[in-house]
Amino acid sequence: MLTPLMAQNLIKEFFSESMTNSEGEEVSTLEIKKILQITIEKEDKKKAFNR
Prior knowledge:
By secondary structure, the protein is mainly alpha-helical. The chain has helices spanning 4-14, 29-42, and strands spanning 18-20, 26-28. It has two helices and two strands. The protein has a two-stranded antiparallel sheet.
């Protein structure tokens, strides 16, 4: 379960300029946001990923 503190930390990490991936490499959050935007634009609106 996602606690308020966990959510706060995730938001803080997401809006920083970079994040560390599972291999320990820095990844630009701008690149992550772009990937999310493309994924949302391409998804079937009748079967959205968030449902």
